[in-house]
Specification:
By secondary structure, the chain is an alpha+beta fold. It has a single domain (about 5-75, about 120-270, about 285-355), classed as Roll (Pnp Oxidase, Chain A), CATH 2.30.110.10. It is built from eight helices and 14 strands. It has helices at about 60-75, 90-100, 125-130, 185-190, 205-210, 240-250, 255-260, 285-300; strands at about 5, 20, 30, 35, 50, 145-150, 155-165, 165-170, 170-175, 215-225, 230-240, 310-325, 335-340, 350-355. The strands form two sheets. Strands 5, 6, 7, 8, 9, 10, 11, 12, 13 and 14 form a ten-stranded antiparallel sheet that branches. Strand 8 (about 165-170) and strand 9 form a beta hairpin. The protein is globular.
Amino acid sequence: MPIRHLIPRRSPLLLLRTTILQTRPFDRVAVMGEMDFNASSHPQHPKRLVFAPGDIAGPQNDELKAAATIRSAASHLADDIVRSDTSTPTSAMQVELLSHPARAHQFVINPPLHISHLHPTNPLHQFHKWFKDPRIPRSSAPETCTLATASLPSGRVSARMLYFKELDERGWVIYSNWGSKEGKGGQVFGPEYRASADGSVPGDIHQSAALNQGNRWAALTFLWALVERQVRIEGVIEPLSREESEMYWRTRERNSQIGAWASWQSKVLWSVGPEGVADDLDDGRAELERRVKDTEARFADVKDIPLPPFWGGIRLVPESVEFWQGRAGRLHDRFRYVREGQTDHTAEDFKWRIERLSP
C-alpha cells in the first residue's frame, strides 16, 4: 500500500519526521523517523495511528487550493440576504426571515452517510479515516478540538480549545500543562493536586495520577466545518507514563519548552476591581515575560530542557464516539459507537455497538 503523508516534513528533528501509513486493513502503524512503535516490539505501548499532527505544519499551495475549492462548494450560503446590525427581532426582520428560508446555514456538501460507509467494529479507525480526508487541508489544523472536563463535587463544567497529538488503539492523546488547581489540572487530578514551576509547590502529575482523586470523565469534540462533519467522544482519562510524556516533550521547540516552565497555567497573574485601572498600569504581562527571561537564564547552559513535573500527556479512552455529518433540512446523519461488554477501561476484550441517532 502506498505511504501517505499526514503532514509535510520539515527538519531537523528526527522524531518529527512523521508519516502515516495507510491503515486499512489496519495492520500498520505510524512511523516516527527510524523509531518503530509496533506493539510487537514495544508491548507496553498501543499502536499509534497518528503522531504529532500539526507540529510540522506549513500550508502548501495545493492545500490552499483545496480549501478554496471547498469554500466554493459551500457557496450555497445566502449571500444576498441582508444581515441586520441588531440582534433584536423586529417585524421587518421577521418578514425577512420568512422570505428567506435559507438564511441559516444549510448542509449540502456530503452525500448520505450509511452504516456501510463506517468501519464495522472500531470507531478509532473510522476517526482516522475522517481525519485524513483529503478535502481537509492540513493548514486548517484538523487536530484542533475542544476538551471538556468537570469539577467534583460541584459538577461545574469547563472547556478549552487545544490540539490532540496522538491517536492510538486505546484513544486520543493530549499533552498539556496541568500545573494549577485553578485549571483543568485540579479537575482531572483532584483538588489537592498542585505543582509550580519554581518548585515552591511540589507535585508531579505522574505520581498524583495514581491517587485517582479527580474526575476522570471528559469529552472531546472535533469540528471540520469545511466538510460539514464533527466527531464527539466521551470517555475516561488515563494519564500517560513519564516515559511517554518525555518522548513527545523532546519533539517540542525550545521556546515552547521554556514557555511551559515559565507559565503556571490558569493561575491569576493580575486582576482589577470594578473601579477600573489607569491606562498606563501594567496588566501582568510584564510578570509573565520576566518569568520567561528567568527560565531562559535557568536553562541557558542546558541542552535538553527536562520535562516539568506538572506537564504531560493524558489519553481519553472512549466509551462512546459519535460521527455527525450535516445534511439538508437539518436531517443530519448521526452514528454512535457505544462500548459494550466491559466496565474496566484497561480491558481489551470489548466490542462496539453502532446506533443511528435521530438528528
